[in-house]
Batch of 3 targets.
Target 1
Amino acid sequence: MRSKLVAGNWKMHGSRAAISDLLAALKAELPSEPRVDIAVFPSAVYLADTRSLLSGSPVAIGAQNVCEKPGEGAYTGEVSAQMLADIGCRYVIVGHSERRAMYGESSELVASKVKCVLDAGLLPILCVGESEADRDAGRTLEVVAEQIQAVFDLLPVSELASLIVAYEPVWAIGTGKTATPAQAQEVHAFIRGLVAERSTELAAGIRILYGGSVKAANAAELFSQADIDGGLVGGASLNAQEFSAICRAAE
Ligand code: PGA
């Protein structure tokens, strides 16, 4: 059975004071032994603080981005997957649509990041999803397949056991417009089918999260779909009550 995962992507929000308040509230709201995996993704500069504030808590930490180069080197401003592992990260979000759209990340570059994250022993959350124009043009499945294919082109199935995929329709991110459970399920089942073409074992185990305006009010219905294994939550993860309610919905 796949364990559900609820991941809170804080994006470029927060301060030491705000994060300390948010985590105190979250710790008070969440059960001490949740029946789902939970992780928060602060800005890289607050990862270490977040980790200490969460010590003794079941909530894991992850990074929002990573350098596509392995090892160390002259890459000013970058953070390596090994560094993230060194400070106690468990997950790394790669290929978020904001990075693809605003920082020009191609599917090939995103695949290199997935490889670095896996090589460092961390769990990549590979974000895929279509724009509104893609959906209107009937290209949703094609776009998602292309984004996933880049990872299959670089990495053998035998190395993908820790891969997590997040389906995030771009038109649903931060807009309040959630995909309907049926729309999301269709794409999740398609993604699992793509993986099954390579390995039925991997397909049965891989976790596929939904992201895009997930909130307490819609989480339970989304998470009850057969191929939705949790959520990647943006805006609602900055509110302890909302986020913990989403975690409870996943249970
Ligand atoms: P949202 O963001 O929940 O605010 O729509 C989701 C995401 O970008 O991962």
Note: The radius of gyration is 17 Å.
Target 2
Amino acid sequence: MQATDKTYTVLSGGGGGAKFALGLDQVLAEGQLQVIANTGDDFEHLGLKICPDIDTLMYTLAGIADPDTGWGLRDESWQFMESLERLGGETWFRLGDRDLATHVRRKELLASGSTLTEVTAELCRSMSVRASILPMSDDPVSTQIHTTEGVLPFQEYFVHLQTEPTATGFDYAGCDSAHAAPGVLAALGHDSLAAIFIAPSNPWLSIDPILSLGDIKSTIINARVPVIAVSPIVAGKAIKGPTAKLMKETGLDPSVTSIAGHYGDLIDGLIIDEQDAGLQGAIEDTGLQVGITQTVMKSHEDKAALAAFAIDFAISLGGNKK
Ligand code: FO1
């Protein structure tokens, strides 16, 4: 197992990425885990600043996330939504009563001059989250989905239209002028760093917004530690969400081989599920190392086992980075 003076940094969206981050948090000691959170899903709504992937990561690492939806809080009530509905307000984006407090508190702290990084640290402190959750940027970056019905802002596509439109491409508005948030580049380069992980989040919707920031991507390209991705695709399907649908719509075969090709030279290794073991050779032919284990995470034990495997796999690659 890993030495406890080593640290690990993971790039993550919500959903599957948060489960992997929880697994890492379970097997690592306090102070060993940094999470770089996607903020491309963020949007202003009902006068609030909604940060879905930051909140899913916070709630998951605090052990209070809704276990089924992949977002929001468990044991939630919906009085606010019901009242807003009666008043004619927008309720397509569901805000639970307890979840609402997070958004109101974030808005209040931002209005008082705190940065998103500072607000996230404060909220994590309030929820006793051990890991360090770092927004990718304090500057606005908004994921836009190009579809046959026009260009859609992320939440309009993902929630309002339930990812139904046919996607043709993506862009990350604001990425050219945005910079990594404080602490992010250090988390990708400090001396104690042992590995950088790309969580099994949607590459186009959750990871590429992070990589669209030039300073983050170049720091990862020049990393002196192994960069390991966990495939979000298992046996041609996504565990949850539109990853496979997006791949088909943009002309990609929804396979782990396409995931390997997408990350390309940015990564040294790819971890795939046992069900895709037959594709190991094809992926190794592209120059990547392949780790094979169960990547489907149902229980806490599954999450911890995948995290432990990823750490051991990274350590085994330690020397021979590409
Ligand atoms: N996703 C939905 O599919 N429906 C919702 O009503 C919804 C509400 C919501 C509220 C707060 C929050 O932090 C996330 C929420 N999400 C909802 C998830 C959000 O759309 C995320 O961006 C996606 O899950 C992708 O990460």
Note: The chain has one domain: 7-146+173-317.
Target 3
Amino acid sequence: MPATLTVVVPCYNERDNVAPMVAALDKALAGITWEVVFVDDDSPDGTAAAARALASQDSRVRCIKRAGRRGLSSAVIEGALSSSAEYVAVIDGDMQHDETRLPLMLDAVRNGADMAVGSRHVQGGDASGLSSPLRVRLSETGIKLAQMMTRTSVSDPMSGFFLLRQELFEQLAGRLTGQGFKILLDLILAAPRRLNIAEIPYKFRPRAAGESKLDVLVLAQFAGLLIDKALHGLVPLRFISFALVGGVGVLINLAVLQLARAAGLEFTAAQTLGTIIAMVANFQLNNQLTYRAQRLKGTRAWRGLVLFLLVCSLGAYANIGIARALYAENGHGLASGAAGAAVGVVWNYAVSATLVWRLR
Ligand code: GDD
Ligand code: MN
């Protein structure tokens, strides 16, 4: 019988939790035809092998193994898109979520909710499984921030435990950032209309085995997601990153200027050298950070560098021209300079995004 419900389990180094998870699902989902998909990012502990060993005995178990990639959200997306079932549920692979709530969640969606979310913060829920007071604070702050900035009333928008129609997931999939841990928040924000969300209380349990993968990078990605939404996607995250890199470039420029002058170079030559070095450094930084996902390599990188230098030179030319014209008109040096610089950075960003790092 084909499955009605696909349970997607993102996992990284969860080998010892795989078999208990299947056993727990088997118990919790009696009466429902289900399958489970473990989405593993080539964990060194052999999680995928453990899942496949079970899959060879039980056709309800599948495993997607991804090579050279990491990420909770993107793993969930791949697992959910691999499903042909009518409903998809997402649950952590470390037994922290309470799988016995799944039938209730399925009922809620069958009865008209767009999504059922397992919540630690509604009556009957419990977040005591968080591993430390620091995690409790982080979690509370994150929830408040997320609620404020996204105007969602969901009590646990950071939950990684939810269920929805596969069709709805597929509709939203193209708009997801796929970054970091916050796949539920990402889904809520991607929806063109307000989703009707049923919250099902559950008790967040302590981790069964292994350790948490939440780290500083995950928090940075979360901050990025919130900044992006706070600006209503109007200011692309890429632009913010590009502008920050530009700020670093200014510092490099000034540092080189000082050093070169100290070494005896005259001002114009020292400033020219500083500018060129800053632009090359900016190219490198943008290529590594801002455009990480489409990084230029080999000869493409050299061609990109030359183009980038050209684009930025034109940007500088426009910057100076505009600042000079404004200054002649109103005599306000700082404001004129700032306006020129703003035009310059927008120009550099827009043109380099389309010419230098255009999506292949
Ligand atoms: N495939 C894959 N790739 N899975 C991952 C990755 C990854 O890069 N990183 C983490 N996972 C899996 C873990 O193996 C685990 O099954 C699940 O995602 C959650 O990761 P944990 O490391 O256990 O996260 P946590 O317990 O700190 O965070 C949980 O609580 C948060 C709310 O406080 C998760 O449920 C989050 O989704 C939730 O937002
Ligand atoms: Mn966990």
Note: The longest strand covers residues 5-11.
